[in-house]
TrEMBL record:
PANTHER family, per database record: RIBOSE-PHOSPHATE DIPHOSPHOKINASE FAMILY MEMBER (PTHR10210), RIBOSE-PHOSPHATE PYROPHOSPHOKINASE 1, CHLOROPLASTIC (PTHR10210:SF41)
Protein name: ribose-phosphate diphosphokinase
GO molecular function, a single term: magnesium ion binding
EC top class named in words: transferase
A Gene Ontology biological process term: purine nucleotide biosynthetic process
PROSITE patterns registered for this protein in UniProt: PRPP_SYNTHASE (PS00114)
Catalytic activity as recorded in UniProt: D-ribose 5-phosphate + ATP = 5-phospho-alpha-D-ribose 1-diphosphate + AMP + H(+)
InterPro entries according to UniProt: PRib_PP_synth_CS, Pribosyltran_N, PRTase-like, PRTase_dom, Rib-P_diPkinase
Keywords assigned by UniProt, alphabetized: ATP-binding, Cytoplasm, Kinase, Magnesium, Metal-binding, Nucleotide biosynthesis, Nucleotide-binding, Transferase
Length: 309
């Protein structure tokens, strides 16, 4: 069976290089021509006719990253690639998974349809904001979990009196899954928002006094929720508070909030490149996970062993 070809969108080149190295191959050659008005055009610099193609690119803001993935998928389709897999470590627009008020779009559904229309025959992604987004696709979706590399790191810390925490009610399922493997207690934060990214009120359900707490979430954007929760837990007697968030958007003044908070450590994946370095932010790579799953997909073998959660 011929080896697949792995290509990178510009926003994920560093991660794609790690994935290709872990897979045992090199990145394929692709170029992006840019016009003076900002328009761009991807071009494969090698034949992909009849090949299995993996295109690696997270679709975090700005929307240019999504557009780049769509154009690259379309280029592969029109170049007669046999299988075209969109490898999206971070699936953007996933917070718009339902109508939470009148007259708003369901952005995640729209993105799913765009990806399929552009030519994707399979999607590989990680820690979706909402599991049901898989159902927005008519093509196969491999939904991977960051817990496959976060859990070994957590165990290596050998924390006594470990307690897993969810920063909101919606993340309780994820927190309980971690607690099951770590055989730990669970606490949940209950928050009310004024509007997106602004918290009006937060309460804690559970006891954290004398505990080493680990907050679990799928993404961190402004870091308002995580830092507020961490500070509240320390005030209520927690020995330490760490946070695991798969996707590090870290927009606005997130870095300043993290460095000024009581968080001991923020543990993230490299699904999104960091805007800057911080002594409190530790990055664990998801490259080996994606390379392994891509290898299994190419050779038509089971990937069920990769689903820790």
């Amino acid at each position: 069976m011929p080896d697949p070809k792995i290509f990178a969108c510009t926003q994920s080149t560093e991660l794609a290089e790690k994935i290709a190295k872990s897979y045992g191959t090199e990145l394929g050659k692709i170029s992006y021509a840019r016009f003076s008005d900002g328009e761009f055009q991807p071009s494969f610099e090698e034949s992909v006719r009849g090949a299995r193609v993996f295109i690696v690119g997270s679709t975090h803001p700005s929307s240019e990253n999504l557009m780049e993935m769509l154009l690259t998928l379309d280029a592969a389709k029109r170049a007669s690639a046999r299988h075209i897999t969109a490898v999206m470590p971070y699936f953007g627009w996933a917070r718009q998974d339902r109508k939470d008020k009148p007259r708003v779009p369901i952005g995640a559904k729209l993105v799913a349809k765009l990806l399929e229309s552009a030519g994707a025959t399979r999607i590989i992604t990680m820690d979706l904001h909402a599991d049901q987004i898989q159902g927005f696709f008519e093509k196969p979706v491999d939904h991977l979990y960051g817990s496959t590399f976060f859990l070994p790191y957590l165990r290596s810390l050998e924390l006594d009196n470990l307690t897993i925490a969810s920063p909101d009610m919606g993340g309780s399922k994820r927190a309980y899954a971690y607690s099951k493997f770590l055989e730990s207690d669970v606490v949940i934060c209950y928050k009310q928002r004024k509007k997106a990214n602004i918290i009006e009120h937060m309460e804690l359900i559970g006891e954290v006094k004398g505990k080493n707490v680990v907050l679990i979430d799928d993404m961190v954007d402004t870091a308002g929720t995580l830092t507020k929760a961490a500070d509240m837990m320390i005030e209520r007697g927690a020995l330490s508070v760490r946070a695991i968030t798969t996707h590090a958007l870290l927009s606005g003044n997130a870095y300043e909030r993290i460095e000024n908070s009581k968080l001991t450590e923020l543990i993230v994946s490299d699904s999104i490149p960091l805007r800057q370095q911080s002594p409190k932010v530790k990055v664990l790579s998801c490259a080996d996970l994606f390379a392994d799953v891509m290898h299994r997909v190419h050779h038509n073998t089971s990937i069920s062993s990769k689903f820790i959660m």
